[in-house]
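Dear colleague,

Thank you for sharing your sequence with our group. We've completed the structure prediction you requested, and as agreed, I am returning the results in plain text so they can be pasted directly into your records. Please verify that the sequence below matches your submission; if there's any discrepancy, let me know and we will rerun it promptly.
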Amino acid sequence: MEDHIFNLATKKLSDEASEQDLRELDNLLLQYPDISLKIKQLFNWWYYDEEQNNIDRSQLLFSKIQEKIKQAEKNNQKKE
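Please find the predicted C-alpha coordinates below.
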Protein backbone atom coordinates (compact mmCIF):
# COMPACT_ATOMS: atom_id res chain seq x y z
CA MET A 1 0.00 0.00 0.00
CA GLU A 2 2.86 2.36 0.79
CA ASP A 3 4.17 2.02 -2.78
CA HIS A 4 0.75 2.87 -4.16
CA ILE A 5 0.52 5.95 -1.96
CA PHE A 6 3.98 7.10 -3.06
CA ASN A 7 2.99 6.54 -6.70
CA LEU A 8 -0.05 8.75 -6.23
CA ALA A 9 2.08 11.36 -4.46
CA THR A 10 4.56 11.29 -7.34
CA LYS A 11 1.74 11.84 -9.81
CA LYS A 12 0.59 14.81 -7.74
CA LEU A 13 4.06 16.34 -7.64
CA SER A 14 4.48 15.94 -11.39
CA ASP A 15 1.02 17.39 -12.10
CA GLU A 16 -0.09 14.10 -13.67
CA ALA A 17 -2.67 13.15 -11.02
CA SER A 18 -6.32 13.06 -11.98
CA GLU A 19 -9.03 14.30 -9.66
CA GLN A 20 -9.72 10.68 -8.78
CA ASP A 21 -6.02 10.12 -7.96
CA LEU A 22 -6.01 13.17 -5.71
CA ARG A 23 -9.14 12.07 -3.86
CA GLU A 24 -7.73 8.57 -3.42
CA LEU A 25 -4.46 9.99 -2.12
CA ASP A 26 -6.27 12.19 0.39
CA ASN A 27 -8.36 9.25 1.61
CA LEU A 28 -5.35 6.96 1.92
CA LEU A 29 -3.37 9.57 3.83
CA LEU A 30 -6.22 9.78 6.31
CA GLN A 31 -6.24 6.00 6.69
CA TYR A 32 -2.45 5.67 7.06
CA PRO A 33 -1.18 8.49 9.28
CA ASP A 34 2.33 7.02 9.51
CA ILE A 35 2.73 7.18 5.73
CA SER A 36 1.01 10.55 5.70
CA LEU A 37 3.87 12.05 7.70
CA LYS A 38 6.40 10.77 5.16
CA ILE A 39 4.37 12.13 2.27
CA LYS A 40 3.95 15.53 3.92
CA GLN A 41 7.71 15.69 4.45
CA LEU A 42 8.26 14.80 0.80
CA PHE A 43 5.86 17.55 -0.27
CA ASN A 44 7.61 20.06 2.01
CA TRP A 45 11.01 19.21 0.49
CA TRP A 46 9.63 19.31 -3.04
CA TYR A 47 7.96 22.69 -2.68
CA TYR A 48 10.90 24.16 -0.74
CA ASP A 49 13.30 23.12 -3.53
CA GLU A 50 10.94 24.54 -6.13
CA GLU A 51 10.71 27.83 -4.24
CA GLN A 52 14.49 27.94 -3.78
CA ASN A 53 15.01 27.40 -7.52
CA ASN A 54 12.67 30.31 -8.24
CA ILE A 55 14.65 32.52 -5.86
CA ASP A 56 17.94 31.43 -7.44
CA ARG A 57 16.59 32.16 -10.93
CA SER A 58 15.36 35.57 -9.84
CA GLN A 59 18.73 36.43 -8.33
CA LEU A 60 20.50 35.31 -11.50
CA LEU A 61 18.20 37.41 -13.69
CA PHE A 62 18.64 40.41 -11.41
CA SER A 63 22.43 40.04 -11.64
CA LYS A 64 22.22 39.92 -15.43
CA ILE A 65 20.07 43.06 -15.49
CA GLN A 66 22.51 44.85 -13.20
CA GLU A 67 25.39 43.86 -15.48
CA LYS A 68 23.54 45.18 -18.55
CA ILE A 69 22.87 48.47 -16.76
CA LYS A 70 26.55 48.81 -15.83
CA GLN A 71 27.55 48.03 -19.42
CA ALA A 72 25.10 50.60 -20.77
CA GLU A 73 26.46 53.22 -18.36
CA LYS A 74 30.01 52.49 -19.52
CA ASN A 75 28.96 52.79 -23.15
CA ASN A 76 27.22 56.12 -22.46
CA GLN A 77 30.31 57.47 -20.68
CA LYS A 78 32.51 56.54 -23.64
CA LYS A 79 30.19 58.41 -26.02
CA GLU A 80 30.37 61.60 -23.97
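Summary note from our side: Residues 32 and 40 are 12 Å apart (CA to CA).

Kind regards,
the structure core
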